Every structure is written in structure tokens, then in C-alpha cells.
Automatic annotation (TrEMBL):
Subcellular location: Nucleus
InterPro entries assigned: Int2_metazoa, INTS2
Family in the record: Belongs to the Integrator subunit 2 family.
Species the sequence originates in: Sander lucioperca (Pike-perch)
Region (Disordered): 924-954
GO annotation, cellular component aspect: integrator complex
Gene designation per UniProt: ints2
Gene Ontology terms describing biological process: snRNA 3'-end processing
Keywords for this protein: Nucleus
Protein's name according to its UniProt entry: Integrator complex subunit 2
């Protein structure tokens, strides 16, 4: 920024002293340098320190001594005496005022009407007004910056431009930021200062007085900076400000340059900092500028390469300016190039006053100490011209040719330099533009041919300059461009590299501890470039061998290597040759890795490490996922790579390996998270939430302590002993209990050998007189095994729990059978339905297989749809009347099948909840759950109950055995699973309730399934169905929901139901009216009990029903008129009914015999039921009062 050229900036010495609080160094500063740091020093002297040591007390005295002779200290002390809390309140009010006014500079709370200019006002003001003036101006600039949307502007401000008051304004600015940090974040203040003149000077002073904020300010300015800083005035001002900051703190210049590259902003700043950088020990081989620019253009980060190339291209479009960072860089590179030219060659010197021509020493060759630097410069210019599009000037082209044609010594570095020079000549022939230059190149090429044998013998390398030149000449003469490309490939050794790479030995015990450039890096780069498939070189065996030779901590290159390998298997190198792919790892090779995965091999140790097994597992899962994702492209190319068989996947202990990986997350890097992502996508049944919770119980601290207490010499039970104990039940119950208790102390991995014995004998536990503790212990062991081998365990358990008839037929289900039809799990022995520990296991398996079925059908549909559609399209060409089956139909069929599976599972489980005839005789009732949770039930919620009060005692009584019964426990387990299913997919709840289920289960489902309240969303739709059965079910369900969830939404749906009932009363025939209202009249009692405001609507409905029925009865010469009168009286004066009943809240009706009711006309029965319902409503309402 030229506007602050005459100002004194903070020196690097002073800034370092402030950073370290070096009082001795501060005392050595001159008065002008000390003046810039006064705001921080005064606050340091006046504020209470956190450091109470004696040394700081001495330093503080020295600081006070320093400040005692400075006159400006008094004004700063006066500034610090202001009430900053009140000032902040006024500032925030002004910000709100400006925000409401849309940013216009109208009325100000901080500053009243100015009588003079801002500078004069500042001069004549007291400290408080000076703070207000500066704060108002600064907030105005900050608001304008926030509203500018990134567009740069330069704000004209007297306060920041008057050189007379710059020191005082800087003091005020530093004090404001230090005392009001929440109002004035230092990064926002720094951004605002870029938009005023002398902003870089103010910024350096501000940061010098808060030295800890240096990195924060620099990162903020870089993040908000332009991608190309030299394109705009704002970018150049930002670059210059950051450059001044780095000159103030040169030790952080390289860190700031790294921030520039990380954010890909301000490329000119990175170059400028490199030009300013002066290392303590300069590298004689390569300069910092060459290293920095070469790293950007020749590095692996394509984003950085594109960003810096754009800087070079855009910089060339502007006129040549001496102030341009790009031209400064080019001048510096040219100076370095000329400096290493042979003295007899460097006769044409750049026009630079700093360079002094030296007399020619007659040396025509390149010095040996300059060869490496010359090679680096040639590579850099190749990158600048080839990647960044640099157009060399005549001067640069001339000096480059002089360097290329210089003759290096006969060393390996010299051979490398000659090769680079020749490649550069082939790549950029436009460098040769005059006859003199052509003659120079001919002489150099002749020298290459002549000196080839000498270079080969002296340097100890095979240069082959002559043969290469001869082949190039022949191919150019015959215009065989493809042969030239082939020659370049063979010269660079590409084909030789691929053939040699597969013979390179793998790295034994490869891990992240082995640093440096390894064979895996070479293979990875060749895989990415598709060199193996292009040249038909098989790399599968090398990759397999390397994966088998890995250990922890995992090397960072392994996962990218597997990803690149999978891509080379599925994606051809070119469309012209679709068969140019690598071969996948065979199934037998994969099985060899997992033969001893869940334990110890027969030789006493595990053959393959856990790292190898996890990497192979990642390869399989990632391969299958990428294969599914590429089905469309593969179908178009008529390619169908082989998928790994289900039999192979069944033999891999996926869950056990992932559990092992969970404890090795630090050593495995990102492999564990990648495996979890693949599992959640392809094997959702292995990622159940309850499984993760159970794992915490199995692998937590308490189980670990219990295993530590297990003596090493304790008795170990064999599988045959376990089998015998099961066979002798129930007499062997104590021995079996001891064995099972011992097994609970083992880890899940050690339990695997006992898995078959535990599951095979499960059916024996269904016999009577088996202790409950054995069942619960078996459930605990099963859950532990489920954490390491769920899929195999599930298959064994399903087969063990089959009914005895199926066991006799030796019908064995496979994993595939259970994924295709998950309902097989529920076709178990009926006794399981009343054995809660085993029922818990069955429900767990059912939930898992329902999820597995979804994933299985999704994969099956995806892997077959594209190939079938492609083949169908080919076969139907030219055949009319055979349209393709639309894809949406296949998807709809899949969704319909999944919905049918889920709803069938729910209906079966609900049927299990119904008590059997024996349980009904013992007094079991599904309504007991609702009674125990929500209090006493309304008396009329039972279908067809005409005498509710007479049955009150029966309903309130608990079933025999109390609440703790097998049926109750099974009901709770089933309700928990249904709750999870309804949450996971609310459409299941909707489908099940549209299908309907026994009304006797409604008390159980409403009380036991918390998520059933979602039924309130679709009950209106269910009421609109034409079938009376569905409407009756909807009203009965709603009555229980209103009792359980007395919410505003329930009230609105209840009003709708009453309205629907009134409408149906007018359209139903006599027979349908009786069948509709008889079961739903008791529901009105629940409506009124839950929502008393519905009393009038319900009473009106009951009177309408009574009038309709009475009118029909009257046509048959029956006298029912007194009923209507009684109903009207009850509606208008319910208290009168109580009074007439003797003051009791329990109303009674005349008892009617069964013969009277059973033989009565349906309308008469309905009339009596209406009257009974009316009385129940009044009784329940008054009882609630």
C-alpha cells in the first residue's frame, strides 16, 4: 500500500520482544519504536496481572520506569478510565438502529451531531468522545464490509488519513479492541482496516499490541481473500498487508505461506513471501523459490496445481509491471538461471543493476556443483510452460537454450541433465526460433552422439543417446507419431516398469512404522494410471501377497491401493478394449485367509494377522458395493464381472472381525469406519442398535473384571459334558447350571466352540420343570455369541427350534432360505411362544432377518435389473408388441413383498399375544396391561357388554398369578419389537391397522406400544373406508388412544368420529345399524371420560340413535316413547338423575333378564344399550368430579 510508505512500522525485533514479554529488549527500543507499543504496555502496567511471581513484579517496575518519561502515556491512561460497559451498550444500540435503517448513516447514538469535521472533532474531544468517534467510524466500515458481498471498496475517512493524529487514533483503536473484544473481533477489525488508507500500518500496530492474535488474523485475512489476488485492488492491498505482517514476524512467514496453499487463496502472497524469505543456512543446490513453485506445479494436489496455473496465466495477460509479483518471480528465476551458466556462455546478461558482469574465464562446461540446480530449473521451466502455460520472453528463451546446450560433467547427475534437456527440446520446439539457435542445437546434438560412449563409461550408466536420436530421426522422417510415442514410453521404461513391478518383492510386515518410498507406492501409481491393464500385466498376485504381509498400525497407502485395484477390475482402461481389466482375488485365496479367523490355528498361532483379514474383508465388501453401483455401465458394455458367492460370505466371520477392529481403531486408521459404512449399507442386520448395546454389556469393564477373577487352573468343561447335561434334564439341572455359569465367564470368542452344543439342545429347555435361571443364562450366552457370529448362530438356532415334526423330517434351513423368507423364524415350536427367554431370541432373529431380506432383495433387484433389461432390449429389436417391463414395476413388486412380510410378521406376533383357551380359563386377560399402566378401564370398553356395572368386579380383578406371567412377559417383548418396527417404518403401522386385528388386543397394543399414537394421523382415512368392519375398528382404536393420549389432536379426531357416526346413522339400514352401533356405543364412554367437552355432542348422538330406533319400534306397536323422554331429561339435568338415585354417583338401571334381552327386537336392544351408555357416561363424569 503506497499510502503508508512514509510511516514507521513495528520492527521484527520489537515484535519478538512483545511476544516474549522481554522487558530488557523493550528497554533497548528507541522512543519512536516504543511509541507504537504504548497501548499494550500501559494496559500491562495498569491491569491486575495473572502472574503473581516476583520476577514479573520486577519486570512490571521496569515497564513503569520505561513509561514514566513518555508524555503520550497520560492520554492512554485517560482512555482506559472510561466506562466501557456503557460504551458497549450504546454501540450495540447503534448497530441495531443501523440494521433497522438498512445501513444508512442517519441518526447516531454514539456520536451526536458533528459541528466540525471528524478530524477537528477528534482533536477537541475528551477521551470518551474520542473513543465514541473512532468506534462509530469503525463500526460504519465494518457494517459496510459485511454488506458488500465480497466486492472491494476504499472508504475515505479523515480519521484514518490525517498523519497528524495517526498515533492517537491508533491508541484509541488498540484500546477499543482490547476492551471490547466481543463487539470488535480482531479478525473483523483487521478486515475493515483493509478498506481505509494506511490500513496496513494500523493493522500491524493492532497485531503488535496483541501479538498472540498474529496467526488468527493472518488465517482470517487469507480465508476471506481472493483466489487470484493480483486481479483486483483489494487482492493487492490484502497481499501487501499480509506481507507487512510477515516482515514484522518473519519466523511465521513459511507457516503463513502454508495457509495460502491450504486455502488456495492469494497465490501472489505465497510467491512474495518466498521472495522475501532469507534462510539462515541457504541451500546451495536448490533455491527456496524453485522448491516452492516446483512443489505447487509438480505435486499431487490437482486443486493446488490448477489454482497456481491460473495465477500464471492471468498474470501474463496484464502489462509487464515491475510491481507485479509474477514478474518479480520471473526476474528472480532468470537471475538464478544466469548465475549458473558457464561463464563463456552468459554474455547476454539481464538488464538488472544488481548484477555485475564478470570477465569470461573461458570455461564452456557446466560446473559439477551447478548440475543439480540446473536440472531443477529445467524441470521448473518445463512445468511453468507445460502446465501453467508460461510464454517465455525472448530473454528467457535465449538463456534457457544456453543452459540446455551447456555440457555437464560425465556423472549420473550430468546424464540426467542431458536427458532433461533433450526432453525439453522435444516438448517445446518453439524455443528454437533463429538460424543461429538451430545451429547451436545441431552442434549440441552432435556432441551428444560423440560423447555417448564416454558418458556411459565414465558415469557408469547406460545413456543410449545415439540410438535414441537415431530412432527419433527415423520416426520423424516417416511421420510415425505413434511410434514416437511408443519410443518415449519405452525410453521412460513404462512397459518395463509394469513387468518389473510384479516381480518386486512385497514389503514384509508392512505397517505405518515403515516410512519412505516403498513398492506399494509404485504399484499404486501404476494402478491409477492403468498401466497394468494397458500392457496386460497381472498384478493380482502381488496385491494379494502384500495384503497378507501387513500388520498394525496400518499403512496409509493400503486402503487407496485396494480402491484403485477394485476400480481396475470393474472399469476397463478404454471403451475400445472392454476386456482390459485386472483379475479379482479368487474365492479360495480369500478362504485361506479366514480359515483360522475366529481362533487359533492348529499350529498354535494364527496364520494371518487381523490386519490382513480386515483388509480382505474391506476388499470383498467394497468390491460388491462397487459392482452394484456399476451395473448400468457394465450392462452397456455387455460385461458381467463375477460376484462373490453367498457360500463364501457365510464362511467369513464379519461381525467377529468388526468387533476386533473396534478395539484397534487407533492402529487401523480409517479402516474401522469404512467397514462400518459398508456394513450399514450391505448388512444392516449386523448393525442393530440393540447389538451394539449388548456388546457394551459383554465387552465392558464388569465382564472383564469377572474374567480376570477366573483362575487359570479352573475346570474347563468339554462340549460332550455340556451335551450330556442337556440330555439328562431336568435331573441334571444343577450340573447344567454350573456349566452355563462357567461359560458366562468366558469371552465371546472363547464361547464359539460351544455354540453348536448350546443351540442344538435348545428344544430340550421347552420341557416342563426346567428352571427359569437356566433359560435366562442360556439367553445371556446366546447374546454374547451373537456379538461374534450372528449369522451362523441364527441359522443353527432356527433349525434347533423347529417343531418336532420337521425335526423328524430332517428339514434344515440355510442362510439364503431365511433371507428369502424371514417368516420361517416364526414357524418354530409353539412352546417357544410362552418361553420368554427363548422368545426374546426368536424376536431378535426375526428383526435381523427382516432387515437382511430388505438388503438381499435390493441387491438382487439391482444386480439383475440392468442386465435383464439390456438383454431384453437386444432380443426385442425389431419385434413389435413386446415392450420392456418398466423398472418401476420391479421396484413396486419388491416394496409390496417387503410390506407383506412385515405386516405378516406383525399379525403373527399379535396373534401370539392372545391368550390360549387354557390361559383364559386361568383368568389371563390382555386388558390387564392397560389396567396396570393407565388405571381402571371404562366399564363399557368391552364389545357387547350390556351389563357393564355388573362386571366391574371381574374386570378390576388381576389374573391368577398376578402380573408376573409368561404371557405378560412375551407380550412386553413383542410390544417392544413392534414399537421399534413402527418407528423405523410408520407405513407398517398404517398397513397393519388397515388390515385390522382382534379387538381384544387393542388394550394391549395401545398401552404397550408407545409409538402407536401415530395411528391418530391415519384414523380419519380409516374412517373413510367403505367397510363397516374397518370403521368399527377405527372407532374402537380411537377410544383407547383417547384414554391413553388425551391430546388436542385426539380431541379433533374424536369429534370427527362422532360426526361420522351421526352421518352413518342416517344412511345405514336397520340390520347394519344394529351391527355398527352395538360394538361402538361403549366407545362413547371413553370419549367423554377423556374429553368432557364432548358430552353435548355424544348426548345429541345418543338421543338421535334412540329416536331412530324408537321410531322403528313404534311402527310395530311397541311403546318406547318414555325412553326418549328419559334420555332428554338425562341430557338436560344429569344431576337430577343423581338426586333421584338417592344421591349416589353410581346410577343403576332396572335389571333385565337374558331372555328379555336375547329375545328382544334388535332396535329394542339398541335402545336399552343407548340408555345404559348414557348412564355410564353420567356415572363416569360425576365420578371424575
Amino acid at each position: 500500500m503506497a499510502d503508508s510508505a512514509g510511516l514507521q512500522f513495528v520492527s521484527s525485533y520489537a515484535f519478538e520482544a512483545m511476544q516474549k514479554v522481554d522487558v530488557a529488549s523493550l528497554a533497548a527500543l528507541s522512543d519512536p519504536e516504543l511509541r507504537l507499543l504504548l497501548p499494550c504496555l500501559v494496559r500491562m502496567a495498569l491491569c491486575a496481572p495473572a502472574d503473581q511471581s516476583q520476577s514479573w513484579a520486577q519486570d512490571k517496575k521496569l515497564i513503569l520506569r520505561l513509561l514514566s518519561g513518555v508524555e503520550a502515556v497520560n492520554s492512554i491512561v485517560a482512555l482506559l478510565s472510561v466506562d466501557f460497559h456503557a460504551l458497549e451498550q450504546d454501540a450495540r444500540k447503534e448497530q441495531q438502529l443501523r440494521h433497522k435503517a438498512g445501513g444508512s448513516n442517519g441518526e447516531s447514538i454514539l456520536v451526536s451531531q458533528l459541528q466540525h469535521g471528524l478530524t477537528l472533532e477528534f482533536e477537541h474531544s475528551d477521551p470518551l468522545r474520542r473513543l465514541r468517534l473512532t468506534l462509530s467510524e469503525l463500526l460504519s466500515i465494518m457494517n459496510k464490509v459485511a454488506d458488500s458481498n465480497g466486492e472491494f471498496f476504499l472508504k475515505s475517512s479523515e480519521l484514518f488519513e490525517s498523519h497528524v493524529y495517526l498515533d492517537e487514533v491508533a491508541d484509541v483503536l488498540c484500546i477499543l479492541q482490547a476492551e471490547l473484544p466481543s463487539l470488535l473481533p480482531i479478525v473483523d477489525v483487521a478486515e475493515a482496516l483493509l478498506h481505509v488508507r494506511n490500513g496496513d500500518w494500523f493493522l500491524c500496530l493492532l497485531v503488535a499490541n496483541v501479538p498472540d492474535s498474529f496467526n488468527e488474523v493472518c488465517r482470517g485475512l487469507i480465508k476471506n481473500g481472493e483466489r487470484q489476488d493480483e486481479e483486483s485492488v483489494g487482492g493487492r492491498r490484502r497481499t501487501e498487508a499480509l506481507r507487512q505482517l510477515c516482515q514484522m514476524n518473519p519466523s511465521q512467514a513459511l507457516n503463513i505461506r502454508a495457509m495460502v496453499v491450504e486455502e488456495c487463496h492469494l497465490p501472489g502472497l505465497g510467491v512474495a513471501l518466498t521472495l522475501d524469505y532469507r534462510p539462515d543456512t541457504p541451500d546451495e543446490a536448490v533455491s527456496p523459490l524453485v522448491s516452492y513453485v516446483s512443489g505447487l506445479l509438480l505435486g499431487t494436489n490437482s486443486k493446488v496445481r490448477t489454482w497456481f496455473s491460473m495465477f500464471i496465466r492471468n498474470g501474463q495477460q496484464r502489462k509487464r509491471e515491475s510491481s507485479s509479483v509474477l514478474w518479480q518471480m520471473r526476474r528472480q528465476l532468470l537471475l538464478e538461471l544466469v548465475a549458473i551458466l558457464p561463464r563463456s556462455r552468459s554474455t547476454h546478461m539481464p538488464n538488472d543493476g544488481d548484477m555485475v558482469e564478470e570477465a569470461s574465464a573461458g570455461y564452456s562446461g557446466l560446473r559439477e556443483e551447478h548440475v543439480v540446480k540446473a536440472s531443477a530449473l529445467l524441470r521448473l521451466y518445463c512445468a511453468l510452460m507445460g502446465i501453467a502455460g508460461l510464454r517465455p520472453t525472448d530473454e528467457e528463451a535465449e538463456q534457457l537454450l544456453q543452459l540446455m546446450t551447456s555440457r555437464p560433467p560425465a556423472t549420473p547427475a550430468g546424464v540426467r541433465f542431458v536427458s532433461l534437456s533433450f526432453c525439453k527440446l522435444l516438448a517445446f520446439p518453439t524455443l528454437v526460433s533463429t538460424p543461429e539457435q538451430e545451429q547451436l542445437m545441431v552442434m549440441w546434438l552432435s556432441w551428444m552422439i560423440k560423447e555417448e560412449e564416454y558418458f556411459e563409461s565414465a558415469a557408469g550408466v547406460s545413456a543410449s543417446f545415439g540410438e535414441m536420436l537415431l530412432l527419433v530421426a527415423m520416426y520423424f522422417h516417416s511421420n510415425q507419431l505413434s511410434s514416437i510415442i511408443e519410443l518415449v514410453c519405452s525410453t521412460l521404461g513404462m512397459k518395463v516398469v509394469t513387468a518389473h513391478a510384479v516381480r518386486v518383492a512385497v514389503t514384509n510386515n508392512l505397517s505405518a512404522n515403515i516410512t519412505g518410498f516403498l513398492p506399494i507406492h509404485c504399484i499404486y501409481q501404476l494402478l491409477r494410471s492403468r498401466a497394468f491393464t494397458k500392457h496386460k500385466v497381472s498384478i493380482k498376485d502381488w496385491i494379494y501377497r502384500q495384503l497378507c504381509e501387513t500388520t498394525t498400525p496400518i499403512h496409509t497407502q493400503l486402503i487407496p491401493l485396494i480402491d484403485a485395484y477394485i476400480n481396475s477390475i470393474l472399469t476397463p482402461a478404454s471403451k475400445a478394449n472392454p476386456e482390459a481389466t485386472n483379475q479379482p482375488i479368487t474365492e479360495q485365496e480369500i478362504l485361506n485367509v479366514f480359515q483360522c479367523s475366529a481362533g487359533v490355528s492348529q499350529g498354535g498361532r494364527q496364520r494371518y494377522s487381523i490386519t490382513t483379514q480386515l483388509l480382505i474383508l474391506y476388499y470383498i465388501l467394497s468390491y460388491e458395493e462397487n459392482l452394484l453401483a456399476s451395473t448400468k455401465q457394465l450392462a452397456l458394455m455387455q460385461r458381467k464381472p463375477k460376484s462373490y458367492s453367498a457360500a463364501l460370505m457365510d464362511q467369513i466371520p464379519i461381525k467377529y472381525l468388526v468387533t476386533q477392529a473396534q478395539g484397534l481403531q487407533q492402529e487401523l486408521g480409517g479402516l474401522h469406519s469404512a467397514l462400518l459404512r459398508l456394513l450399514a449399507t450391505n448388512y444392516p442386520h449386523l448393525c442393530l442398535v440393540e447389538d451394539w448395546v449388548c456388546e457394551e454389556e459383554v465387552t465392558g469393564t464388569l465382564p472383564l473384571l469377572r474374567r480376570m477373577m477366573l483362575p487359570s487352573n479352573t475346570c474347563r468343561y468339554t462340549q460332550s459334558q455340556l451335551h450330556q447335561a442337556f440330555q439328562k434334564l431336568p435331573s441334571s439341572s444343577p450340573r447344567l447350571m454350573r456349566i452355563l455359569e462357567h461359560l458366562t465367564l468366558l469371552s465371546p470368542g472363547d464361547l464359539i466352540p460351544y455354540a453348536e452344543g448350546l443351540t442344538a439342545s435348545m428344544a430340550l429347555l421347552l420341557e416342563p420343570a426346567v428352571p427359569r435361571r437356566i433359560l435366562q443364562t442360556l439367553n445371556k450366552l446366546w447374546m454374547g455369541l451373537n456379538t461374534v457370529m450372528p449369522r451362523r448362530l441364527w441359522v443353527m438356532t432356527v433349525n434347533a427350534l423347529q417343531p418336532s415334526a420337521k425335526l423328524l423330517r430332517q428339514q434344515r434351513y440355510t442362510q439364503n432360505d431365511l433371507m428369502v423368507d424371514p417368516l420361517i423364524v416364526l414357524r418354530c415350536d409353539q412352546r417357544v411362544y410362552r418361553c420368554p427367554p427363548l422368545m426374546d431370541i426368536v424376536l431378535h432373529m426375526l428383526n435381523g432377518y427382516l432387515l437382511a431380506s430388505k438388503a438381499y432383495l435390493h441387491c438382487h433387484l439391482k444386480e439383475t435389473a440392468d442386465f435383464e433389461r439390456q438383454s431384453q432390449t437386444v432380443s426385442n429389436l425389431g419385434v413389435p408388441g413386446q415392450p420392456d417391463t418398466p423398472e418401476v414395476t420391479r421396484e413396486e413388486l419388491k416394496n409390496a413383498l417387503l410390506s407383506a412380510q412385515d405386516s405378516a410378521a406383525v399379525q403373527i406376533l399379535l396373534e401370539v399375544c392372545l391368550p390360549t383357551s387354557e390361559e383364559q380359563q386361568q383368568g389371563a386377560s390382555t386388558e390387564s396391561l392397560l389396567s396396570s399402566i393407565g388405571g381402571p378401564l371404562p366399564e363399557k370398553l368391552k364389545q357387547g357388554s350390556l351389563g357393564p356395572r355388573a362386571r366391574r368386579g371381574v374386570e378390576d380383578a388381576e389374573p391368577e398369578g398376578g402380573l408376573l406371567s409368561d404371557l405378560r412377559e412375551v407380550q412386553c417383548l413383542i410390544c417392544c419389537l413392534l414399537h421399534q418396527m413402527f418407528i423405523a417404518d410408520p407405513n407398517i403401522a398404517k398397513l397393519v391397522h388397515f388390515q385390522g386385528y382382534p379387538q381384544a388386543l387393542l388394550p394391549l397394543t395401545v398401552a404397550g406400544i408407545p409409538s402407536i399414537h401415530i395411528c391418530l394421523d391415519f384414523i380419519p382415512e380409516l374412517l373413510a373406508q367403505p367397510q363397516l368392519e374397518k370403521q368399527i375398528f377405527a372407532i374402537q382404536l380411537l377410544s383407547y388412544l383417547c384414554t391413553q393420549y388425551a391430546l388436542p389432536k385426539s380431541l379433533s379426531v374424536a369429534r370427527l368420529a362422532i360426526s361420522v357416526m351421526g352421518t352413518l346413522l342416517t344412511v345405514l339400514t336397520r340390520a347394519k345399524r344394529f351391527s355398527f352401533f352395538m360394538p361402538i356405543l361403549p366407545c362413547l364412554v371413553a370419549f367423554c371420560q377423556a374429553f368432557p367437552p364432548l358430552y353435548d355432542d355424544v348426548a345429541g348422538l345418543l338421543i338421535q340413535v334412540g329416536q331412530v330406533c324408537a321410531s322403528d319400534v313404534a311402527t310395530k306397536a311397541r311403546d318406547i316413547d318414555p325412553l326418549i323422554a328419559r334420555l332428554q331429561y338425562l341430557k338436560e339435568k344429569p344431576q337430577g338423575a343423581v338426586a333421584s338415585g338417592g344421591g349416589s354417583s353410581k346410577l343403576t338401571l332396572p335389571q333385565r333378564t337374558a331372555e328379555e334381552l336375547g329375545g328382544a327386537d334388535p332396535d329394542v336392544q339398541l335402545c336399552y344399550c343407548v340408555e345404559a351408555t348414557f348412564m355410564d357416561i353420567i356415572s363416569s363424569t360425576l365420578h371424575g368430579l
